[in-house]
């Protein structure tokens, strides 16, 4: 291969790598997070094995004729482990454990007929299950494949009743059959639990859903999850969109968030694009428009506006002096979010109109101004919902008509800043405190979260808490799916 061909291939590879869409949202589940899942997984597996149903067994051995039925697993003593497997997903392993069973017998020996219960124990139970994690066609995390191997080293049966010792000669024969049947039942039960039940729980993770009546959010995975011995890392699109025009979305040029920590159970990284796409979606949806008038207009601000524009009013129509005044604010460009190590901020440029409102007539415009505002943005997490609180940091107004009017507006700066802080900012914060759900299954919440600011992105490290058990979560999801299908 010549130098030219090598250069072309290198260039194409570089273009492909650089054109890949960076994630707006990243999630890392660490080995500590997996530790929390171990007990829930063990309990879930025990319940699945306990629900195994075994067929009735009929046959004969020598002069014995027997029927075995109503096989029930009464006790499990499992020693298990759950761990990450690089480039695959998860490994669930049970080793050197035991299962206790009880079943009913009917035995005919010569002219003697007897029935009763049999207690049996499966010992040296070893199960190895590998769960392959991937991205499905919709961009959802799923278990794409499960491989399982189960081995029971030995099984013992203890007969009850007056002829219990006589029937001991059946023990070897019956336990061999029972061990064979039980071996064949364990893996199908666990495969069903993973590929059907757990995948149904993963379907509760929002992929593309509505946030409110105006915007939606896209949490589709951009690629298969990356699994190492220490973590499970997932890259999500993390993009908001306008419900009325879903194709009009912001292009992601933000930096790719980098998560280096492993100490907490889970890490959530959000780039500037995550917030910018939300601001862009609300902007294109026409939500960034406000009017301050009538009861929302403070009397001292109205008086100062009337005094400032007295000359303009008198020139237009002196009769306007007695009519209410209003301020109309309209954001003129998508607001932008900036994240630095010192914190996050949002910059907004708006057009502000000063109007007189004569009853029954069209509003009369007195002035048009440009407002340049900057907010400090504090990000917080509650449960699974991400919320933002804004505080006005910088406020400046400039006349769109003349430099002279800009000088006349200086006395208004302080009052308008206060007016904006007490009238508009609370409306925004009241809305943003509702938050937006992050991509975790129902019933699992963030606790003890810590927010760190980096250049271009934030990282929220937290621990996890199950509000209900894994079995209850799946049962709830099955019930919800059943109700929706009716």
Explain this structure.
There is one protein chain. With 486 residues, the protein is of the alpha+beta class. 30% of the residues lie in helices and 43% in strands. The protein has ten helices and 22 strands. It has helices at 3-19, 31-50, 168-202, 272-284, 299-308, 310-316, 403-408, 410-423, 425-432, 470-485, and strands at residues 25-30, 57-61, 64-77, 80-85, 89-109, 112-135, 141-159, 208-210, 215-218, 226-227, 231-236, 239-242, 266-271, 289-293, 325-331, 336-340, 343-356, 364-382, 385-399, 436-437, 444-454, 457-466. Strands 14, 15, 16, 17, 18, 19 and 20 form a seven-stranded antiparallel beta sheet that branches. A hairpin with a 2-residue loop joins β16 (336-340) and β17 (343-356). The longest helix has 35 residues, at 168-202. It is elongated. The two termini are 63 Å apart.
Q: What is the helix fraction of residues, given as a range?
A: 25-40%
What would the average pLDDT be, to the nearest integer? 83
| Residues in β-strands, percent | 35-45%
The first-to-last residue Cα distance is 63 Å
Overall geometric form: elongated
The helix tally amounts to: 10
Quaternary form: single chain
- Rg (CA only): 34 Å
Structural class: alpha+beta
> What is the tally of beta strands?
22
In short:
This protein has ten helices and 22 strands.
């Amino acid at each position: 291969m010549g130098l030219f061909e090598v250069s072309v291939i290198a260039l194409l590879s570089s273009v492909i790598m650089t054109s890949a869409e960076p994630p707006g949202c990243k999630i890392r589940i660490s080995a500590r997070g997996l530790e929390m899942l171990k007990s829930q997984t063990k309990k879930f597996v025990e319940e699945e094995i306990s629900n195994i149903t075994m067929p009735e067994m009929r046959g004969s051995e020598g002069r014995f004729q027997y029927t075995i039925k109503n096989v029930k697993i009464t006790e499990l003593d499992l020693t298990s482990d759950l761990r990450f497997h690089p480039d695959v997903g998860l490994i669930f392993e049970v080793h050197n454990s035991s299962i206790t069973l009880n079943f009913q017998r009917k035995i005919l020996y010569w002219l003697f007929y007897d029935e009763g219960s049999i207690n049996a124990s499966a010992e040296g139970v070893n199960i190895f299950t590998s769960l392959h994690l991937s991205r499905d066609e919709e961009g959802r995390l799923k278990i794409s494949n499960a491989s399982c191997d189960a081995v029971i080293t030995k099984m013992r049966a203890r007969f009850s009743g007056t002829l219990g010792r006589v029937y001991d000669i059946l023990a070897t024969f019956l336990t061999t059959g029972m061990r064979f049947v039980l071996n064949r039942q364990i893996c199908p039960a666990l495969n069903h639990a993973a590929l059907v039940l757990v995948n149904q729980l993963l379907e509760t993770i929002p992929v593309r859903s509505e946030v409110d009546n105006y915007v939606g959010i896209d949490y589709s995975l951009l690629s298969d999850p990356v699994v190492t011995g220490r973590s499970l890392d997932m890259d999500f699109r993390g993009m908001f969109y306008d419900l009325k025009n879903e194709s009009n979305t912001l292009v992601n040029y933000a930096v790719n968030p980098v998560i280096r920590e492993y100490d907490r159970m889970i890490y959530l990284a959000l780039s500037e694009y995550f917030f910018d796409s939300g601001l862009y979606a609300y902007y294109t949806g026409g939500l960034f428009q406000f009017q301050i008038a009538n009861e929302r207009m403070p009397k001292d601000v109205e008086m100062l506006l009337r005094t400032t524009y007295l000359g303009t009013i008198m020139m237009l129509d002196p009769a306007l002096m007695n009519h209410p005044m209003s301020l109309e604010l309209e954001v003129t460009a998508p607001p932008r979010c900036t994240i630095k190590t010192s914190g996050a901020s949002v910059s907004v440029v708006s057009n502000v109109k000063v109007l007189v409102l004569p009853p029954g007539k069209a509003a009369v415009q007195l002035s048009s101004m440009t407002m340049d505002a900057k907010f400090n943005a504090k990000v917080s997490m509650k449960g699974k919902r991400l919320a933002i609180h804004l505080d006005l940091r910088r406020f400046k107004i400039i006349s769109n008509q003349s430099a002279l009017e800009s000088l006349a507006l200086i006395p208004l700066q302080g009052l308008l800043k206060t007016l904006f802080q007490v009238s508009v900012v609370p409306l925004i914060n009241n809305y943003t405190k509702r938050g937006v759900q992050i991509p975790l299954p129902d019933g699992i919440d963030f606790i003890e979260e810590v927010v760190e600011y980096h250049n271009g992105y934030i990282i929220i490290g937290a621990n996890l808490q199950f509000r209900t058990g894994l079995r209850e979560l799946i049962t709830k999801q099955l019930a919800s799916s059943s109700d929706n299908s009716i």
